[in-house]
Fold this protein.
Amino acid sequence: MPRIEQAYQHCQSIAARHYENFPVASRLLPKKLRRPISVIYTFARTADDFADEGALSKAQRHQKLDDYANKLAAIARGETLDNPVFIALADVIKNHALPLSLFHDLLTAFKMDVDKTRFADFAEVLDYCHYSANPVGRLLLHLHGAATPENLSQSDAVCSALQLINFYQDLEQDYHEHNRIYLPQDEMRQFGVTEDHIEQARSDEAMQALMNFQFQRAASMMQQGYALGNILSGRFGLELRMIIQGGACVLGKLQKHDGNVFRRPRLNRWDAVRIVAGALLRVSVLK
């Protein structure tokens, strides 16, 4: 079996073992995009594990992430690598003319995960989203050949909103597992919320008011990029509309918290029907 084919199969096997809010191996996607997306996912998944998993020290985590950055630099120089992830990644980057800077942006986000656990204001949260979420959407647009300035801007709005929604449904988990709080510190003070609220899952009026504000802002951001799913045609556009509908559905459940903003949303069969129908009919479920 050719070396490059083994590298692709290695990435596809890793992607198949994980479930994420990343369109890995989605049958909705054009077949020609599934393998490159699996490679991009594997790069991001393995780098993310360096930042979060295991008992590594901060220095060791940075060392592994720096090694990934060095391998990206080697790809830029046209060097041959032995790592199967980067063998496949080099092929994807070459065949689809993907910007290497977007992969470096993802590594920046993972390095931030190692060091940064609090965010002074919403601008800092958005800066994190710029590195952690937006590159994914931009890479998909480049793969699809639709990376126009307008599309990239709308993709950024959607991806950042999806990242925020993920933060909001994992408030307790992020705090207790990684000592991270992605809520802006200045807004917590403004609404009279302390870290004790999150540690104790205390959903009083102050906490509800803070989160209602966060939810509405995320909905507005999602709305800014909603049209992108309708602009893009074919199965790729449908996939994007499904992702947007899914994020909007989770956000809607967060907004209907019945006094408990720490309750993690669960999607049911009826939600799945609404997501599919909304994507097919191009009907917005955003409030």
Remarks:
- Confidence is low (pLDDT under 50) at residues 19-25.
- The domain at 1-99 is CATH 1.10.600.10 (Farnesyl Diphosphate Synthase).
- The chain has 15 helices and no strands.
